[in-house]
């Protein structure tokens, strides 16, 4: 305590200089926390919008179905599907499971025919896991409660299609289109569906091709009762690996892929951002380091004689360099604390204000600016600042203390 | 009386470019406990160099130094530091006080190396500050004190850890006559009261009346090993 008090008094020795150094440290900490908040919010936003945009956390299919189209024509029988769902939904980390039938085919109005990527969905469950595809015209697929309310023909043969596909096909809500696709036994089948809604995912490539129909319609189209995907949604994305392991040990003769495997673009984005953030962090840290170093060099040069006197009184060079390092640590601590408080205030303000950001590359709609307040990132940044400042003070002190003790005492 | 300082064949050479300067030339000297000794000599005669070597702040080029019956090993820095903190006090020409600390805090500095707690450090420091006549100035910072008062704070700092030997390099060089007188009276008092051995360098003639023994150096040679005045 006595040493900390002494170092604190030395920090106060030249108040203006110390305030400038602390301000620079605070600014550096603030910048890094804001930048990390933005990057982490981007990671989280991209991850969750992908998962909740329809991908789910885990998808199950027949072995090799993810890479072999022929196998993917088949799928899980009704019994198998039920057994899988019961097993997986019994896991506490799982929110729900839902079946899907994915298909590729053609959508035609008679005059215009366009290749589409379709999915048959259980709309009741799909609504709970697909949050980011707003209907911009019409309505969503009709709710179906199979046990109490048998589906009508109108309910079965309905479709929600992408905004660009609707424009290209020149159809509007209420128009009918024909869907053609391969059946599960390598034949071709077609059904007529009524467009009940038009949606916008924000991804133009998706909106050019997407068709969503009830799973019962997809079964008719493929002329099969099988479903080729089972989508698992979790309460918390962090549990993805845990549930993958649980499924792997509980079930066999299935193939499962996590959202990360289904969406490798995420890893590329994370790597890119981490590199950018790493370089930026190093630059900011270097600026802070040089500033603190400069402050400490000035402070140390003013106190050469004083240090010489302490050495004459029996203070070891290690003890004296620790005193200087403690001064750096105190400044680092004050700066990091101030920067954290400032950044927290700004993050809260920005998150409350919900500023609109322009659409990111590959998307057609903007998003609200949200910054993450991540205690782990803040701890790492603050520690990096404090350690850097301590080193920035300790190094010149060590160099100064190599000076001959007599020269130090007589230094003026 | 116990011998506090014994110097045998002490030489110190400084190399400046191609020149070697013999600052001290084979000095032999003995100082007993309780002596009040001044090293006299012109500027550049080697007074400070001799004082620094005796204070273990500098290494000799040749010869031996024995302090309190123990031969000094100049190669072991940590044992020298321990030795200094336990047995020696230093006063410097420029006081070398910490400007952000009060007189009391400055005096407490050497005690930070001891096991004394905060209260004990404070009490001991106040006691020494009383002895040097600064009772009413303990909470003043060096900038609020006169040169003489600052030097008395430096004396208190040198004495607070109860050293057996006090070394002072030109302690009165920056002081007026009144401050010089007060400082010498304080040092003499300490010398009398506790048997403290005092060795200081000076060429200040105002000090002659206070000095018990004067050692004279001339161009690194000891020309007078001491006469009691």
Task: Report on the architecture of this protein.
The complex is a heterodimer of chains A (about 400) and B (about 230). With about 400 residues, chain A is of the alpha+beta class. Chain A has 2 domains: about 1-50 and about 265-410, no CATH class; about 65-255, no CATH class. Helices cover about 55% and strands about 20% of the residues of chain A. Chain A contains 16 helices and 12 strands. In chain A, the strands form 2 sheets. In chain A, strands 2-3-8-5-7-6 form a 6-stranded mixed beta barrel, surrounded by 4 helices. A two-stranded antiparallel ribbon of chain A has the order 11-12. Chain A is elongated, with a radius of gyration of 31 Å. The relative contact order of chain A is 0.18. Chain B is α/β, with parallel strands linked by helices. Chain B has a single domain (about 5-225), classed as P-loop containing nucleotide triphosphate hydrolases (Rossmann fold), CATH 3.40.50. Helices cover about 30% and strands about 30% of the residues of chain B. Chain B contains 6 helices and 10 strands, in the order E-E-E-H-E-E-H-E-H-H-H-E-H-E-E-E. In chain B, strands 6-7-8-3-9-10 form a 6-stranded mixed β-sheet, sandwiched between helices. A 4-stranded antiparallel β-sheet of chain B has the order 2-1-4-5, with helices on one face. In chain B, helix 4 crosses helix 5 and helix 5 (about 145-160) packs parallel to helix 6 (about 175-195). The two termini of chain B are about 20 Å apart. The model of chain B has no long low-confidence stretch (mean pLDDT about 85). The interface between A and B is medium-sized, with 23 and 26 residues.
